[in-house]
Amino acid sequence: MRPAAETDGKRAGPGWRGLPAAMKGLPAVMKSLPAAVALAWLAALAAALIHWPLLTMAANRLVPGVPVTGGAALGQVLPAILALSALAAGLLAVSPGRRAGATALALALAAAGLFAWGLGHGAALRMAGQPPAARAGLGAGAWLAAALLGAALGLAVRRCRRPGLGLVVVGLGLVGLGAAGRAGTFDALSLAVEYAARREAVHTALVEHLVLAGGALGLAVPAVILLSLWRRGQDAVGIVIGGVQVVPAVALLGGLVALTGGLLRAVPSLRDLGLSALGPVPAMVGVAAYLLLPLWRGLAAALSAPDPASLDAARAMGLTETQILARLRLPLGGQLLVGALRVATVQAIGLATLGALVGAGGLGRIVFDGMAQFAPDLILLGAVPVVALSLVAERTLSALEDRMRAGLPA
After folding, report:
1. Are strands 66-69 and 53-58 parallel, antiparallel or unpaired?
2. Domain identity same for 117 and 172
3. Boundary-marking domain end, from 175, 197, 219
4. What pLDDT, in 10s, does the model give residues 228-251?
5. How confident is the model over 76-112, as pLDDT tens digits?
6. Strands of 66-69's sheet, edge to edge?
7. Which of 46, 48, 43 is CA-nearest to residue 141?
8. Which of 158, 146, 90 is nearest to 380 (CA)?
9. What does the alpha-carbon distance between residue 391 and residue 96 come to, in Å, rounded to a whole number?
10. Among 143, 167, 197, where does a domain finish?
11. pLDDT at 128
12. Which parts of 96-248 fold into alpha helices (H)?
């Protein structure tokens, strides 16, 4: 009889003997993974550009459009876009880190060719001779291609590892879109038609949206500071702030409108101060209530960032609590505060859209007008700026957070 250990080892031997060979093959698999991902990305992009609808031609803004795919929408620009995308995919697969700048340039040119020289020009050609009510909208393929190009461009910019390069790319993209729009490149697209018809309303709504989001942050930040000073009631504060998160935003705004109306009936003199049951005040208060939790947790984490030994050493040196806060807690926990502010800012920009439900205006008014009229492009006219504002705020504060984490000057 053989020992049990020998029998077990023999039974398990082939698997254990095969493990080193598998480990040796792991680097090859890891090296081929970027190539497989790049190939899958290129295949998805090609499918979106060739087989999915890039444009939809409709008799008016309310009826479903007829899809236009591939070369019929982009014309001779399609091969150039595919060639640039294939070049970018090859660079990502072969040298993902060394040639990130060339990859980003190829992707930027592909995106410019898709929207400026492709879709804009293609929509203009197809809209020639059409009645004024006709619309040329962006199809699902255009949005999918834009998402794929944007994701790859973001990856290439990140691999460049140049501080602030992402903001530069976003800024140049916005400038390029603005210049193309002023040149009339997108005039035939229904989104541009909706914007031209509501230019002043969109600008006013954008300012109102920024005021709502900024006002909510202006209310939430000092409120969190005051709540953090109440040391004995931190458990109760956490329960209340956490409980607000489970209340639907629409229900909270409705409750604030009813509460404000009751307060005005009890104290009519408040109307002389400009307080109203509808408008920006209940919207700001409602949005600020949702911002308390990320700010409160971020402040608590920042204040507890120093280890107890550092705090004991600071007190032994004779530093007061205010000096410890200024010289120790805030410098060590500053990036945590910026991270909390980043989350709260993005959340405020998104939630401010609901302010239109209580008469506060903002970009939500355009979104809800589009929903009421069953006009998808009008909905996008209000939603796209909200997404753009959120991305810019997130990217800006993320860059500041990274700089503070790395110990670089902001």
Report:
1. antiparallel
2. yes
3. 197
4. 888 788 888 888 888 888 888 888
5. 889 999 999 999 888 877 765 567 778 888 888 898 8
6. 66-69, 53-58, 135-138
7. 48
8. 146
9. 25
10. 197
11. 83
12. 100-112, 121-127, 140-160, 165-182, 190-197, 199-229, 234-245
